[in-house]
Write a structure and sequence with these properties.
Layout lengths: L2 E6 L5 H13 L3 E6 L6 H11 L4 E6 L5 H8 L5 E3 L13 H4 L8 E2 L3 H13 L3 H25 L1
Parallel strand pairs: 1-2, 1-3, 3-4, 4-5
Helix pairs in contact: 1-5, 5-6
Length: 155
């Protein structure tokens, strides 16, 4: 069974990561949380990747500031990588630029909001899981229904 592995750059990223993990688990998919910094412990990051290289996995990286973690993880795995750096108004949000431009052959996807990062990972997994695909359809329908209900309440 496919799983999502969330790699955080530090414990400071835990709150953002738990929001992602909660949605993934709610959909019945296993989610593992790990901490390893590309700057401070790059060999540990490589060990984590090696641990999951034979499994069906989607990686989500959660690291702020320079976010080297996302590019480093993506460059060292053939599995999908979703970068979901937590927002920081310390730099007016400009710290996400480190995730936008990557060298050739390195392509983490950038999804900022925790809910959407979880959904992106789940959609990737659902390519080989019809039951999960149905849950995603139901989830998306419930979001559409919320809008319709809000509109009806205004009329």
């Amino acid at each position: 069974m496919a799983k999502v592995v969330i790699i955080m750059g530090s414990k400071e990223d835990l709150e953002h990561s738990q929001k992602i993990a909660n949605i993934i688990k709610k959909m019945g998919v296993e989610c593992v949380l790990r901490i390893a910094s590309a700057h401070k412990v790059p060999l540990k990051v490589l060990e984590i990747l090696k641990q999951y290289e034979t499994e069906e996995v989607v990686f989500i990286t959660v690291a702020g500031r320079s976010n080297a973690l996302s590019g480093f993880v993506d460059a060292n795995t053939f599995r999908p990588v979703i970068a979901s750096p937590p927002y920081s108004d310390k730099f007016g949000g400009a710290d996400i630029f480190s995730t936008l431009r990557m060298p050739s052959g390195v392509c983490p996807m950038l999804v900022l909001e925790p809910e959407e990062a979880a959904l992106a990972a789940l959609k990737i997994i659902s390519l080989n899981n019809k039951q999960l695909a149905e849950k995603i359809k139901e989830y998306q329908k419930s979001k559409k229904d919320e809008i319709e209900k809000a509109d009806r309440e205004l009329i």
